[in-house]
Amino acid sequence: MTDFSSQTPETPASGPQSLSDNRADTGAFDTGAPAAEPAAWADGLSEDNRTLVESKRWHGESQVELNKALDAYRTLQGDLGRSIPLPGDDATPSERDAFERRLGRPDTPDGYEFDLPDGLPESFPYSEDLAGRFRDWAFRAGVPAKAAQSLHNDYVHELAGLQQAETERLSTAEDQSHRDLVSDWGEVDSEAYQRNVLLADRALNRLGLTEVMRDFGVIGAEGGVRDARMVKALARVGSELYAEDNLHGSAGGGDNPFAGDNPNLTEQSRLIREARADPARAAHVRSLMHAAGIDPAAQRI
Question: Is the distance from CB of 198 to CB of 269 less than 8 angstroms?
């Protein structure tokens, strides 16, 4: 057995004279304190293992230090047993599938079960079709079930926020359009306002632009005007082309502006605003809307 303590720096040797002499080459951690010599049980170890013994400070009584080494090995073995190896670049589809399932991904897209998150507006139109596509996306990406639920919640909340923002934008546009028309034509009960509304509505219906204006968002589904500029332009067109017609006889909508194949959209807008501002008018407007098969709640009446 080699006696490490009997060698001196001047004694030539084919290798390092002690583990501490080779510290810079092995990369072992150097605390600056004198390194203790390995116990006798380390004599038969390879150079790399002797370096590990020294770096871990497994010195002293052989049984104590050997227990430390075995304890460390047992801990490492347990950690490895609980670990999930990452698939390599050359992993097969079945290997990747097994890896994703161990992470918590369901066996099929239908295995994702999504609960609606809290805090959604009651009117939020949750789409099962879109939820189905979300399941497919999550499955293709190998997303675990719990992570998919979290992403689903964030996605739904984002959609609800966008819907709310759009609803507020359209409501603001209708309010601003109403103020613009009142500013140019006078109050809604004035003769000028009533005449321009009828002229604009006549031009809209005679030119067949009702659906076009809805498609472009100028007029809402329930008749709310969102762009006063277009209504003013239609009023001018109506004045030039249809002013000689009986204004009160063919504006499209009869006594109920919400009814008929060509409803009086501008008159609808006026009545809706009056109902919102005056509870006494709201009952009458609601009755007209119910008679035409329209839900007043959709217009906040």
Answer: no
